[in-house]
Design a protein that fits this description.
By secondary structure, the protein is of the alpha/beta class. The chain is built from eight helices and 17 strands. It folds into two domains: 247 residues, QueA-like (3-Layer(aba) Sandwich); 84 residues, QueA-like (Thrombin, subunit H, Beta Barrel), CATH 2.40.10.
């Protein structure tokens, strides 16, 4: 399929700049794959679509305050850093802007949360083919322990905030209520709609709630630039699937229960592990660069809860594959649902509304 097939127009005012007043007050579009029907509901109505014996699987990765400022020690020019992945203590791959001023050997002073000198430094030690820089930090025992004080929430570029401090609510709302292991540089946004009372309501009706971890990297949200989908190469992302989650899902599938994946990142972990183990879910940690697009044969996931995604994104491509497994017509169903959502003024992207594909 061509990347251009996954383009669509969206009015700028439909790009959510703030989350809903309450997490579960967002809207929910329900797409029934078997008959192509669409329902328009509220997210708190989700329990009506799940039943006893189902398994709800969520990504519990915690977003880190990955945006930092720095000053070029030689020129005084300012850099913006987005931490991408930690290689070891004080050793990180980063996206650095302006990158052309950050050659190997460049020295910079790291800023604190107020834009002042923090006493820590960084040096560029390596670049890769994607233009990312590997930085070694000094003057601080462990940069990761300073991120809450020095870093900013890594909001996507289509969410606009004032330069001075932004919106303080982002610290809470760009994070799921069940966030655990730290490591994501973007939120697993489908999970943002859940509250603890809603999760308890699902458990009380016999739905098993399980967690896995995929640390969301830049690659999840980067647009596909290749002309065809087959020419795109995904970034690797780290994941962990616990023995408990693997066991619960396996038992539920054998008993006829459904697996409802919350978010494309959750789908990617489950389908990656199944693909590597002839359909079995073997627990463990690893890395995946799986790229799911039409047509695709899903081995584990039976329903998908997700947000509305950007044009040309791998997330949109995965949702299109899920809308019609093993076929190429899912894109038509997704874009039709998106058009219906836009007509009804749904809110799109990270802080926007949700979609349940059954």
């Amino acid at each position: 399929m061509r990347t251009a097939d996954f383009d669509f127009d969206l009015a700028p005012e439909l790009i959510a700049q703030q989350p809903a007043g309450e997490r579960d007050a967002s809207r929910l579009l329900v797409l029934h794959r078997d008959r192509g029907a669409v329902e328009h509901r509220q997210f708190r109505c989700l329990p009506e679509y799940l039943r006893e014996g189902d398994v709800l699987v969520l990504n519990d990765s915690r977003v880190i305050p990955a945006r930092l400022g720095a000053i070029n020690r030689q020129t005084g020019g300012r850099f913006q850093l987005l931490l991408l992945e930690e290689n070891g203590t004080n050793d990180w791959w980063v996206m650095l802007r302006p990158g052309r001023r950050a050659r190997v050997g460049t020295q910079m002073a790291l800023c604190d949360g107020q834009g002042q000198g923090s006493g820590a430094s960084a040096s560029v030690v390596e670049t890769n083919e994607e233009g990312h820089r590997r930085l070694r930090f000094s003057g601080v025992p462990d940069l990761a322990e300073k991120l809450e004080a020095w870093g900013e929430v890594p909001l996507p570029p289509y969410i606009h905030r004032p330069e001075a401090g932004g919106w303080q609510g982002d610290r809470e709302r760009y994070q799921t209520v069940f966030a655990g292991p730290a490591g994501s540089v973007a939120a697993p946004t489908a999970g943002l709609h859940f509250t603890q009372p809603l999760l308890e309501a699902l458990r009380s009706q016999g739905v098993r709630v399980c967690f896995l971890t995929l640390h969301v990297g830049l690659g999840t949200f980067a647009p596909v630039k290749a002309e065809t989908l087959g020419g795109h190469k995904m970034h690797e992302e780290r994941y962990e699937l616990s023995g408990e989650t693997a066991r619960v899902i396996t038992e539920a599938k054998r008993a006829g229960g459904r697996v409802i994946a919350v978010g494309t990142t959750t789908v990617r972990v489950l389908e990656s592990v199944a693909a590597r183990n002839q359909g079995r879910l073997e627990p463990g940690a690893g890395r995946t660069r799986i790229f799911i697009y039409p047509p695709w044969d899903f081995r584990v996931v039976d329903a998908l809860l997700t947000n509305f995604h950007l044009p040309r994104s791998t997330l949109l491509m995965l949702a299109s594959a899920f809308a019609a497994p093993m076929k190429t017509c899912g894109l038509e169903a997704i874009l039709s649902a998106y058009a219906a959502a836009a007509q009804r003024q749904y809110r799109f992207f990270s802080y926007g509304d949700a979609m349940l594909i059954l």
